[in-house]
Amino acid sequence: MFVEHSCLKCGYPLYDEVYDYSIRNHGFPLCRVCQCWLTNKTKATEYAKRLYLELKKRHVPVEIEKFDGHKTIDIAIPRFRINIEVDGSHHNIDSKQALVDLQRTKYSLEKGYETIRIPNSLIKDSLNQTADSLVVILKNRKKEMDDERLKSINIMELSPREVQLYDLLVDFLKWLYIVFEVDGEYTKTILENTGTEGILSDTYGNWANHEYMLTAFNKLTDYMQDNNIFESATPGLASDYEGFCGCSLGGFLERNRNSR
Ligand SMILES: [Zn+2]
Ligand SMILES: [Zn+2]
């Protein structure tokens, strides 16, 4: 391998010089573009960005500066229904700001999202412990969700094979919900520019939840193909044609199948 490292934020390959420079100056492996992003002023502060990178390092499916149709959330983890806001001291001192924060928390809770507020000082002095504590919270959340899954599997008395299909379907539906409901505003903006083709395209690197949705979709359709579920759902289609029909979805499935 010529290039051993990649950018923690965007995945771009990093030459050793860039890697060394970024670690030395910023503490994270970042490409030049993402180094600028870290230090330049955008919606999220550098504190929020540092916590985001620290969580990404721990393989948490996080998003930074996420617009929810109302306001930009500093750090969003839709998979676990948790938002993280990183606050400066004015959130504490300024009662107007505090009231806005409370209303935001209420709005998010109504959408099923809990908000965790982290003060800048904590990130400044104890970034690693902060990230570790958040990972523990997320692990507990994941366990709650896993327990819910087991409960519904037991209620429905599913066979092991049915459980496979259940998991694939639920995973896909969860991401579908995130992309079109939770991420609704963002998705709308992308689709206004790309048309419906954009849903199946994988060129929108920053649209992370959409990638998770496509991965879940691929796994589900693979399972359906392997188990002849397509054939029973669309009689004649799978056997009469060499591939799927000519619509966007059919083309996508075809390309995917050929690339395997
Ligand atoms: Zn980058
Ligand atoms: Zn079709």
From TrEMBL:
What Pfam families does the record point to? DUF559 (PF04480)
Show the Gene3D superfamilies listed in the entry. VSR Endonuclease (3.40.960.10)
Domain DUF559 span(s) in chain numbering? 69-137
Under which name does UniProt file this protein?
Answer: DUF559 domain-containing protein
Specify the species: Bacteroides oleiciplenus YIT 12058
